[in-house]
Structures are given as C-alpha cells and as structure tokens.
C-alpha cells in the first residue's frame, strides 16, 4: 500500500485475511483491503465489502469496528454512488465521533477524520479539509502503523492547492526537508499544479508526465483517471492548448467510466466540457457539462459550479442571455460558498464573458 501498488496489495491482504482465526474480524485489515480494491480500479466493490465487514463486526460485539467499517463504506460510496452520499456520510460522522472520542481509539479517530477530510473536499471547504487532515495525521502517528502514517503524510496538498493557502506557501510546504510526500514521485502532481498556476508550464508538464507514469506502473487506475481528467486538463487550459486539454480529459474520463467511478468522473466531464467550449464545440460542451452535473452529487461543489459555468457560456453564445446570466451568477454564488479561490475567480471571469456576449461590456469589465 505504501508503494501505491494496489493490485499486489489486494492479493497480499486477502492472503493475510485468510490467516485470521474463524469468528474474529480484523477491521483495520479489511479496511486496507477496501482501499486496495478501490484504487486498483474496482470502486463499486468497496462499499458492499465494508458493509459485510460492519455486519460481522456487529455480530462479534465490536461496536467501534462496526462504525469504522460503516464510515469507510460511506466514504467510498461518494465515488461510486454520489447522490445523497455526502449527507449519509455527514450523519455517520455525527453518530460515530462521540463514541470514538469516548473510546480514545486512535485508529477509529483516524478513520473519522479521514471521513471528515473527504466530506470537506467534496464540498470544496478546503480550509476545513486541512484541519481534518492535521487531526488525521496526529491519530495516524499514535497508531504506530507505518502505512497509515505514510498515507496521512500525503494528505494536505490538495487542501493547500485549492484553498486559501498562497501558492508560495504551497511550495514552501512541498520543500520542507521533513515532507516525505513531496520528495517522492507522488508529490509531483501537487507541485505540477502549483507551477502551472505560476505559468511554469514546461516544468509542470514534466512533473505531470512523471506522476502519470508512476500511476500506470503501479496499476493505480482511479488516480490516473482522476489526474488526467482534472489536473492535466487544467494545466493545458492554463497553457492555452485546449486541444491537448480535450485529449487528456477524454482519456481520463474513459478510464473512470470503465472502472465504474462517478465522483471524479463528474468533475472530469465538466473539465472536458471546458476544453470543448474553448475549441468551439458548443453542443458537445453542453452535453458533457450536463452529464457531469447529472452524475455528480448536489453537494459536489466543484462539479456543479463548473457545469453552470460552461452551460452559461454555451447559452450566451446561442443568444439565450437571461438564462446564461442566471447560471453564471449561480456559479459565482456557489463558488463564494467555498474556500476555492481559483474557482471564485474563474466563475467571475465566465460571468464577465456572459455579460460581454450580451452587449453589457461595462458590467463585464
């Protein structure tokens, strides 16, 4: 797991579980299996696997283990069945947190803060995500389990990148001597995204290539699809190459579609729609933006904001100015409810384009 070689991890964990005595339930090990199954490209298997673990833990009288498995299953369900999954996870977090605190169980507290971080990310509350990540890292350290410590150490980059942390501070965090994540190949995608926002496109593309190669070598299908359909697209759009953006977006979306993933795919579909719009392929852009919006959960803020932005611009190009403005302003309102500063700026840029297309140049400026 620490090498992100999830196919090999899946087989080895199953062999380890075969050694667990009859009647016992090793919840942490079964959660590890769920993670390996998910990232090796089988996301739909994760939630039912965790549901079965929760049932067996409950039958064995392990209330904490049952809640851990239920939390983990609900977390992964956001990626395969997004609709309503955020609300379900929020409810489970509220139920589990007091029991975990009372038990002072560091593994369970790690699990609940992992769930909090995932929920905050879904809602683009990146500063809240960073708080949850720091608590998750604390409890991972206290478990003494190397792979949890390692995984927790990898978290926090996206929260810094997409939230209110200035880019220079993101680079300072990546360059810290004790930051094992940034020194490894896994840290390349965060550094690439920061450099792209700074206009250093050649460096960003080199790091993107290294990261994608690492994912492919390890069979990390879902992260590959997510990276191609989102981060790689954003890089190429910033660099002014929408054709390259569309090509990588489509490849990433196809990977996620084949794997049965839905959450990252919904955002990737909207990124693809952005690239199609820039290429002047307006009907396809509308189609993919609607597809992303329909697929994503209502509290998947990144997806819903992006979908509104693209659809607004397409409508404006078609002369439907009132509806275009309504959607563009919805995107601004949605973005302002998040910590996503770049999204807030992009939503205003697109509202300005909609207003200009309506002949309202002074308002656009």
Keywords for this entry:
365 residues, mainly alpha, globular
Overview in brief:
The chain contains 22 helices and no strands.
Question: Mind explaining what this structure looks like?
Answer:
This protein has about 375 residues and is mainly alpha-helical. The chain has helices spanning about 5-20, 25-40, 45-60, 65-80, 85-105, 105-120, 125-145, 145-155, 155-160, 165-175, 180-185, 190-195, 200-220, 220-230, 230-240, 240-260, 265-280, 280-295, 300-315, 320-335, 340-355, 360-365.
Mean pLDDT: 94
Low-confidence stretches: none
Overall geometry comes to: globular
- CA-based gyration radius: 21 Å
Helix content: over 70%
Please state roughly what percent of the residues sit in beta strands, choosing from under 5%, 5-15%, 15-25%, 25-35%, 35-45% or over 45%. Answer: under 5%
Q: What is the first-to-last residue Cα distance?
A: 50 Å
- Can you summarize the main beta sheet? none
């Amino acid at each position: 797991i620490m090498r992100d070689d999830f196919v090999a991890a899946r087989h080895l964990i199953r062999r380890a579980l075969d050694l667990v005595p009859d009647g016992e339930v090793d919840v942490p090990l079964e959660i590890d299996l769920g993670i390996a199954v998910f990232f090796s490209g089988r996301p739909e298997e994760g939630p039912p696997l965790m549901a079965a673990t929760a049932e067996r833990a409950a039958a064995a009288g392990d209330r904490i283990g049952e809640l851990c498995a239920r939390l983990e299953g609900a977390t992964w369900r956001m990626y395969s069945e997004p609709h309503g999954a955020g609300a379900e996870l929020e409810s489970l977090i509220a139920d589990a947190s007091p029991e975990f605190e009372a038990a002072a169980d560091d593994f369970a507290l790690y699990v609940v803060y992992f769930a909090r971080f995932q929920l905050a990310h879904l809602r683009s509350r990146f500063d809240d995500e960073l708080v949850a990540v720091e608590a998750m890292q604390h409890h991972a350290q206290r478990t003494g389990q190397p792979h949890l410590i390692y995984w927790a150490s990898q978290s926090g980059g996206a929260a810094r990148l997409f939230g209110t942390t200035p880019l220079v501070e993101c680079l300072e965090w990546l360059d810290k001597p004790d930051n094992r994540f940034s020194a490894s190949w896994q840290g390349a995608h965060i550094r690439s995204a920061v450099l792209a926002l700074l206009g250093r496109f050649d460096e960003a593309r080199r790091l993107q290539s290294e990261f994608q190669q690492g994912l492919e070598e390890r069979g990390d299908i879902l992260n590959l699809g997510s990276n191609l359909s989102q981060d790689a697209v954003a890089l190429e759009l910033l660099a002014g190459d929408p054709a390259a953006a569309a090509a990588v977006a489509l490849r990433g979306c196809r990977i996620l579609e084949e794997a049965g993933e839905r959450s990252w795919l919904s955002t990737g579909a909207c990124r693809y729609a952005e690239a199609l719009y820039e290429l002047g392929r307006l009907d396809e852009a509308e189609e993919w933006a609607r597809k992303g919006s329909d697929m994503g959960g209502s509290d998947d803020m990144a997806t819903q904001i992006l979908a509104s932005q693209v659809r607004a611009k397409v409508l404006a190009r078609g002369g439907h100015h009132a509806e275009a403005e309504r959607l563009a302003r919805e995107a601004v309102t949605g973005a302002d409810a998040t910590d996503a500063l770049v999204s807030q700026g992009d939503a205003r840029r697109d509202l300005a384009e909609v207003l200009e297309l309506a002949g309202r140049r002074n308002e656009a400026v």
